[in-house]
Automatic annotation (TrEMBL):
Keyword vocabulary terms for this entry: Kinase, Phosphoprotein, Phosphotransferase system, Sugar transport, Transferase, Transport
Organism of provenance: Citrobacter freundii
Keyword Repressor found: no
Protein name per the record: HPr family phosphocarrier protein
Gene3D superfamilies: HPr-like (3.30.1340.10), Mannitol-specific EII, Chain A (3.40.930.10)
Length: 268
């Protein structure tokens, strides 16, 4: 799945968040990606948790309950020159509406968040005059040259992601919200695609790790209660970060199975 000029729009409207969501929904409906019902899913999602990532970007999308309203996976980008108040004093200039039937959109989302982590990119987007210019900015930046966070020395732990669609926006937001409450610095690395380390308190950078189901994430914590912090992070990941997950049960070693089998025969 790739972003193209037909997916990008520029608006000089001065509108509120609800109207911006309606504009994105209209683009998705016109392109045949969703039915009009999907708009309610985006509104419901915002009521649950903000889809603002930081650096002027928001990624509104629906809830699982409105996934049936998705006809074809698609992404629509609207650059709002005047900015849109997205709550908590955040102003969104780039609103990326996502309609996904599964996880086809995750790679393009990862690419966008990596590019937009460069502070100069959002400013350039506000000055862009055509969809072609926007596309060049979003795809022409060499993200491999973007500096990574410096690794920190401290306690480490590795956890496996069991969320069906990986660490997309919602579970990432839950994770970052918790890490922000900790009295220690936390960095995260994706050991399966060699991305990171990134600041665990930066939502956009956490999403940019592109963590998928089954990926191993290494957390490093430094500061007061670092061990406790890692333990609680692991608990929340195991609980799904607000989503239903199925954690595979590791079968017992052969010797243990034989021992239990012998005991069961003894007492049966």
């Amino acid at each position: 799945m790739q972003l193209c000029e037909q997916d990008i729009f520029i608006s000089d409207e001065q509108i509120d968040k609800a109207t911006a969501l309606q504009r994105v929904s209209e683009k998705l409906v016109t392109a045949g990606n969703t039915t009009p019902e999907y708009l309610q899913g985006m509104l419901d999602r915002e009521a649950q948790i903000s889809t603002y990532l930081g650096n002027g970007i928001a990624i509104p999308h629906g809830t699982p309950e409105t996934r049936h309203a998705v006809l074809n996976t698609g992404v629509k980008v609207i650059i709002f020159r005047q900015g849109v108040a997205w709550g908590d004093d955040n102003i969104a200039h780039m609103v990326t509406g996502i309609a996904a039937r599964s996880n086809e959109h995750l790679e393009i989302l990862r690419q966008l968040t990596r590019v937009l982590s460069d502070d100069s990119v959002p400013q350039a987007l506000q000055k862009a005059k055509t969809p072609s210019e926007v596309l060049t900015i979003l795809t022409g930046t060499d993200t491999d040259n973007n500096p990574q966070e410096e690794g920190i020395a401290g306690e480490q732990a590795t956890f496996v992601i069991h969320n069906p669609h990986g660490l997309h926006a919602r579970p990432s937001a839950v994770l970052v919200k918790f890490i922000k409450q900790l009295d220690c610095a936390v960095t995260i690395e994706n050991l399966d695609n060699n991305t990171g380390p990134v600041d665990g308190k930066n939502l956009m950078k956490v999403v940019s790790l592109g963590a998928k189901n089954g990926h191993r994430m290494r957390f490093t914590a430094q500061g007061a209660d670092a061990q406790r912090a890692l333990h609680e992070i692991g608990q929340r990941i195991g609980q799904g970060l607000g989503e239903m997950v199925s954690v595979p049960v590791t079968p017992p070693p052969e010797a243990a199975r034989q021992k239990r089998s012998w005991l069961s025969r003894l007492f049966n």
